[in-house]
Amino acid sequence: MLKAAIVLMLLATIASLFSGLFFLVKDDSRSTRVVNALTVRVVLTTITVALIAWGFYSGQLVSHATW
After folding, report:
1. In this predicted structure, what is the pLDDT of residue 45?
2. What is the four-CA torsion angle of 54, 56, 59, 61, rounded to 10 degrees?
3. Separation between Cα atoms, residue 62 and residue 40, nearest integer Å
4. What is the pTM of this model?
């Protein structure tokens, strides 16, 4: 369940990234939609990092790296 939430958050972050790019290219200079898209992207990324940290802390995510 946690992995699915992390993947959904990453997909939402990518969608926000492309919406910000679209607003940057198509909007006039007085629009605040680019700033709103950036704010949403930062919040989504923060939540994603928090979910990953919680997953490692709780033991639901485990690193199988050999190093």
Report:
1. 96
2. 110
3. 28
4. 0.82
